[in-house]
Amino acid sequence: MKIKGAEMVIRILIEEGVDSVFGYPGGTVLNIYDELYKHSDRIHHYTTCHEQGASHAADAYARVTGKVGVVIATSGPGATNLVTGIANAYLDSSPVVAITGNVACAAIGKDSFQEVDITGVTMPITKHNYIVKDASRLADVLREAFTIARSGRPGPVLVDIPKDIQQADCDYEPKKVTPVTRTCTNGKEAFAEAMKLISECQRPYIYTGGGTVCSNASKELIELAEKIDSPIGSSMMGLSAVSHDNPRFLGMTGMHGKFAASQVMAKADLLIAIGTRFSDRATGNKIEFIKGKKVIHIDIDPSEIGKNIPVFVSLIGDVKAVLKKLVSELPAGNRKDWHKEVESIKNCPDNRLEMPSDTVNPETVIHAVNRHAPKDTVVCTDVGQHQMWTAQYYHFAKPRSFITSGGLGTMGFGMGATMGACIGCGKKKTVLFTSDGSFHMNMNEMATAVSNQLPLVIVLLNNNTLGMVRQWQTLFFDKRYSNTSLERRTDYVKLAEAFGAKGIRVTKLDQLDKAVKDAFAAVGPVLIEAVIDQDEKVLPMIPPGGTIKDIIVKA
Amino acid sequence: MNPDEFILSMLVNNEAGVLTRVSGLFARRAFNIDSLSVGVTSDPHISRITITARGDDYVKTQIVRQLEKLHDVKIVELMPTTSTVMRELVLIKLNIAQKSRAGLMEAVAVFRAKVVDLNNDSVTLEITGERSKCDAFVEYLRPFGIAELCRTGLTAISRGRKTLKMDAESAQHN
Ligand SMILES: Cc1ncc(C[n+]2csc(CCOP(=O)(O)OP(=O)(O)O)c2C)c(N)n1
């Protein structure tokens, strides 16, 4: 069947099971938008206020659903506005296909109006990218883009389609989607060695990361922990894979990890690292981090093995497949002494850093949301102290329910991401924890949330400062608060109302529960501004490059 | 070759931008390229890139594994120096008059180099060989005054029947 390139884009999206896309129209994607118009019964396009918002929405949509997220933008500024979102998806291994228009092939290289070499720009932040200059390749390139985005270690793929290719005649032949095969590629020896290390160890520690979430391997992870009688700690990206109330779960480790999670990890003699890449924020001093322990590293990406820390045994493959095999072959273990030690660390006072229960503070606010949010609520964050507090205090109960910018640490991620997450979870109530700095970056997307009546509960922990930077200035720069006290005069309630949303301001504890309750009962987006102290700190903190011995538990 | 030097051979899709992807990866991961040569193989869709670089085992492993992740890279191999034929071609221009060329032709003969262009006031020489031989020749020529020098970078092929072959799956993917 002969169709135009632009229609081909839509056909392939439908083939791939895409029903929601995010984006922003413009000159070089007019043809694609015309086809979106004609196929609006099959694909819903969400127009954001800025392409960055759309790119974060596609990223979060992918993380919540496990499907590929799609974002569309025009050439030039439209395409460059995607860059932060693509880099964010790349660092957090999120499957996104970004489709950009470009000027016609003949105009490429002439500095034509809105011409940017977006494949050149995004080369280091995509798994792969394409510029399609031959209309007969369009269908296969698009299919391949989806396959690459979701296979192996997922990531973003960009397809740049010049305008004349969108207008060209192409042959369409329907094809079945290439399924992702989940395998483990290691030989018998590596498995035997891993099993030996596990059987011989006294103090195992399961350290789980984003790979477990992305491979839907929560069940297998918990089975492994039960079988070998091991505690579990998590990187930030790994949160939500294990329910907060699982007795084996110690919480997040790393720079702002729970005391017990880091302390128990330091005492372990065997680290079973699963789908995690030992980022510097997670390990601190890498040499001290692995002192006295052996490491088994399970990951789908061979280049992660030994990249950041040396490893004893590596099991390469899909986390779920590897864990299944391990669980089925390992003998059950029982480690009473270790168990006792872990329990005593869990119960020590440093593991119970509680903020006062009688003020409006990060902990009381997050607990209020814990009380009112249904168990399966998806929770997103921006970047800063509020992100860490959410990671520490929120009660995640279901995999894929925590959406945050890990690797890139993108302030401004929150609004776009929360919209994408909300759409991904069938427009159920979706929570965003943000703060004044991050919110100001992309608050324009409030308008999108209102247009689409998305039921967002936006909780803005207003400390009237760039809190995370201020914390570093307090601790490491002798309280020289350079450019972090912004003195914004924004009235968030009026702002929310101006956008057509509901705004609630909370300054006293007795207003808190009602505000959260009302927000969950409301239709459409609600913004709760909770005013907190400027000098509230994220604790504990292991200073950059430090070890568990340097942990700061009191400010 | 220095002990920390190594040679990588890879087969890549013969497409626009592939060289940028490969060299960009080196830059981004803070690995250095000492020399790079590239050309199409017997299959017009596939090019072969030979890179020499330096680093310890960590660097070597990381480079190979990171390169293997590039979609356009079909196979990467570290070439063992003991069982690899390595060649480089160097063109050297000496702007010297006839009367000052004493000893030059003798060196050309000893190093098995070639004169590829000859004028009253200039000579252009070509030498092919392993890096050390080329280096020695260049050093010998320095006193004559080198006006211009171009090196192709090393290219390499295994001894014996062994070839750099893509597996069936990646060949098909292309
Ligand atoms: C786009 C971007 N710019 C700058 C930073 C550096 N940065 C990290 S945290 C932070 C402060 C965040 O402030 P806010 O959003 O108000 O959150 P808080 O720490 O107060 O909770 C800054 C500036 C960043 N992560 N991202």
Tell me what you see in this structure.
The complex is a heterodimer of chains A (555) and B (174). Chain A is an alpha/beta fold and 555 residues long. Chain A folds into 3 domains: 2-171, 3-Layer(aba) Sandwich (Rossmann fold), CATH 3.40.50; 188-351, TPP-binding domain (Rossmann fold, 3-Layer(aba) Sandwich); 362-531, Rossmann fold (3-Layer(aba) Sandwich), CATH 3.40.50. In chain A, helix 3 (51-65) crosses helix 19, helix 11 packs parallel to helix 15 and helix 17 (362-372) packs parallel to helix 24. Chain A is globular and about 70 Å long. The mean pLDDT of chain A is 96. With 174 residues, chain B is α+β, with helices and mostly antiparallel strands. Chain B is built from 5 helices and 9 strands, in the order βαββαββαββαββα. In chain B, strands 5, 6, 7, 8 and 9 form a 5-stranded antiparallel sheet that branches. Chain B has a 4-stranded antiparallel sheet with strand order 2-3-1-4, covered by helices on one side. The longest helix of chain B has 12 residues, at 57-68. Chain B is elongated. Chain A binds chain B through residues 119-120, 123-124, 127-128, 148, 301-303, 305-307, and chain B through 17, 20-21, 24-25, 28, 58, 61-62, 65-66, 68-72. Residues 382-386, 409-412, 435-438, 461, 463, 465-469 of chain A line the site of thiamine diphosphate (TPP).
